[in-house]
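Example 4.3 (complexes with small molecules)
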Amino acid sequence: MLNIVLSGPPGAGKGTQSEKIVGQYQLIHISTGELFRKHINEETPIGAQVKKYINEGQLVPDKFVMDMVEEKIKEHSHSKGLLFDGFPRTVAQAEMLDKKLTEYETSISGMITLTVPEEELIQRIKQRRNMLGRIDDQKVATRINVYLEETLPVAAYYKSRGKLFNVNGVGAIEAVFARITTAIDRLKTIDQAQ
Ligand code: AMP
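Answer. The structure with adenosine monophosphate bound is encoded below.
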């Protein structure tokens, strides 16, 4: 399987690029943020419990995240691969993910991080807020801080395993996507050699 983690701060373009990646490599898209929003829209018990964290721009406790992700991995364990979007967001989640994937005799092939300067992120998030009216985007500063504090250690986790690929997220959608495919082709080669 080709299992990729796509990460980047809020507003880095993860959603747009995820769609293109899953199309090109025929992967299953697992976006924890999207799954949570679906729970909230459908007013499920999980939705009711996670709503307050999301609206405050805080991370949802690992237990909710892992239960949901484990179910998806099980469902798609015979696919060509998985694209994790917005997950793992903590080192604990990354460790649990590694353990879970081992049960299916697979592993993370690599993590791609989209890098975008903070001033541009703030501009992009404000634009998206106007277009989509996403409540959690109002907590722009909180979300960027949460990302810096809790999610950057996840990048360090994959880096220490030789699995981190930084991609410049500034520029036209197609230009960024071309950089991503170059990174994926590289990480596939490294993954196969291991
Ligand atoms: P996203 O659409 O990925 O930016 O996620 C929106 C919100 O959902 C985040 O700000 C968090 O509150 C929550 N969330 C999504 N994924 C995770 C995760 N892996 N761990 C904890 N909270 C998450």
